[in-house]
Amino acid sequence: MKLSGAMTALVTPFTADDEIDKVGLKKLVQQQLDGGIDGLVVSGTTGESATLTDDEKKIALEVVLETNSGRVPVILGTGTNSTKKSVHATKLAKEWGADAALVVCPYYNKPTQEGMYQHFRAIFEETGMPIIAYNVPGRTASDLLPETIGRLVNDGYIAAVKDATANMQRASETEALVRGKEDFSLLSGDDFTILPFVACGGDGVISVVSHLAPGDCSRLVQLTKQGDWEEARGIQDKLIKLSSVLFSVSNPIPVKAGVSVLGIAHHRTRLPLETASDNLVETVRGAMIDYGGILG
Q1: pLDDT tens digits, residue range 224-259?
Q2: Global pTM value
């Protein structure tokens, strides 16, 4: 499968009883689809996957799939620091109807490049699911290098990579190694780098700021691919200002505040992430007002 454009790494709304807020999640998905988003990710880092049970992941995916109704690709986060557990989670994703699996590089264990190659190989061979390798060294203490990505792509074990290194040299090196692989997608994992990443040959972004500006994020990818630099830079400048607020403390605390300002769902998070303070909610609201067009 070929993924492109802007895809939102969805937050997971919670009720006052700390259960999945199905109504809020459905409203969020509909808002994203109406805004022109190109794909949806369930139970990624932004979805607080580390604190969700398998049953909760299934509930969230079912809500998203039902609301989406086949309009855009739906991806489920299935990665852990255990290959066996990741295989199991990816099998469930396939059984539940996800289009692809987002598999984070194994965290804490600090595997070698060969270990990570074998990890992704095993997950694909045992599930047959399209795999998006998620490289986010700042959270995992492991780093999937371009040479290993190229090897995985050439051997057919991954369909895409989400690169959250914010390193344009890395993006260019990876693109050179996978150039000509028409079914492979190179995706940014950092909202600050959408324009330069796509200009380096990337296909799109898995985004957080797209919760608040889905149409602009999708449009920015399109404009950059078309080489419409003036308009692209204008959108990028606005998104960077908004993103700086949304990443002022650990994601997804601020973006959940933004979703609550939109009236979609409460901004509750699960420990060990604390729920946004009233001051942070107002800071996010101010950034949304400054951005323009988000609050009507």
Answers
A1: 999 999 999 999 999 999 999 999 999 999 999 999
A2: 0.96
Q: Mean pLDDT, the chain, as a whole number?
A: 97
Determine the 3-state secondary structure of 20 from DSSP: strand
Q: Please indicate whether residue 117 is annotated as part of the active site.
A: no
225 in catalytic set: no
Residue 125 CB: number of other CB atoms within 10 A? 11
Tens of pLDDT, residues 105-135: 999 999 999 999 999 999 999 999 999 999 9
| Phi/psi of residue 265, nearest 5 degrees | -160, 160
Which CATH number does 5-226 carry?
A: 3.20.20.70
Extents of the domains making up the chain: 5-226
- 3-state DSSP call for residue 48? coil
| List 27, 57, 58, 162, catalytic entry | 162
Given 134, 157, 238, 256, the catalytic residue = 134
The CA-atom distances, in angstroms, between 2 and each of 130, 230, 266 are 10, 27, 34
